[in-house]
């Protein structure tokens, strides 16, 4: 019996995800195709305004040099905080759109913070392979930031105003360089 193309893509994604703990190296194009298929099978993100007005937590995480930082270090401009992981297929798919947004929008800071428990080595390799133009490899090796923000879904992206107050969060994948995201990001300008 011949399966429809979409079913084949979903099966390929499931096979790739089942091998997440595998130490063998996969070809980057296989990983990207499997991640794309898995993400296409997922619904688009869900906008959540229930935490609007909440201050950013003071949780420490690591910058690209391994130094500790907090979200307060990014106050002064709106901040789009993306919590992601290298093993999360939808996260991988949306990363290029976050990078495109960061390259295009000088008014909003874009911060991608990995929740990978294995830390710096895997995240640095991920960034080196993809050669992002603006995104940098921040990590939260204990996943404390996600815990303090009560995040249970990756990717989750939280938008803060220039004073560090949450405006909204998106649970799941979004096209951050698209028109829907541009309208949401415009809220920070409207609030100033």
Outline the structure in words.
The protein is α/β, with parallel strands linked by helices and 192 residues long. The chain folds into two domains: 1-41, no CATH class; 43-191, 3-Layer(aba) Sandwich (Glutaredoxin), CATH 3.40.30.10. The protein contains six helices and eight strands. α4 links the parallel β5 (109-114) and β6. The chain is globular. The protein starts with a helix and ends with a helix.
How many H/I helical runs?
A: 6
CATH architecture annotation of the largest domain: 3-Layer(aba) Sandwich
Main sheet record: 6 strands, mixed
Helix/strand order, N-terminal first: HHEEEEHEHEHEEH
Please give the order of strands in the largest beta sheet.
1-8-7-4-5-6
Provide the helix percentage.
Answer: 25-40%
Annotation, overall tally of beta strands: 8
Uncertain runs are: 1-27
The CATH top-level class label of the largest domain: Alpha Beta
The gyration radius over C-alpha positions equals 17 Å
CATH homologous superfamily annotation of the largest domain: Glutaredoxin
The SS-based structural class is alpha/beta
The CATH topology of the largest domain: Glutaredoxin
Number of domains: 2
Distance between the amino and carboxyl termini: 59 Å
Question: Which geometry do the CA atoms define?
Answer: globular
């Amino acid at each position: 019996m011949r399966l429809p193309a979409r079913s084949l893509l979903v099966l390929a994604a499931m096979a790739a995800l089942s091998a997440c703990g595998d130490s063998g190296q996969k070809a980057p194009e296989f990983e990207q195709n499997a991640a794309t298929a898995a993400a296409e099978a997922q619904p688009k993100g869900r906008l959540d305004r229930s935490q609007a007005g909440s201050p950013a937590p003071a949780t420490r995480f690591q910058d690209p040099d391994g130094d500790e930082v907090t979200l307060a270090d990014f106050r002064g401009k709106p901040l789009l905080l993306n919590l992601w992981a290298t093993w999360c297929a939808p996260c991988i798919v949306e990363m290029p759109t976050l990078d495109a947004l960061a390259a295009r929008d000088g008014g909003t800071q874009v911060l991608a913070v990995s929740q990978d428990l294995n830390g710096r080595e895997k995240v640095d390799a991920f960034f080196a392979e993809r050669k992002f133009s603006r995104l940098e490899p921040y990590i939260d090796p204990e996943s404390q930031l996600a815990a303090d923000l009560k995040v249970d879904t990756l990717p989750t992206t939280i938008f803060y105003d220039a004073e560090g107050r949450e405006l909204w969060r998106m649970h799941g994948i979004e096209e951050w360089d698209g028109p829907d995201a541009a309208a949401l990001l415009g809220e920070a300008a409207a609030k100033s």
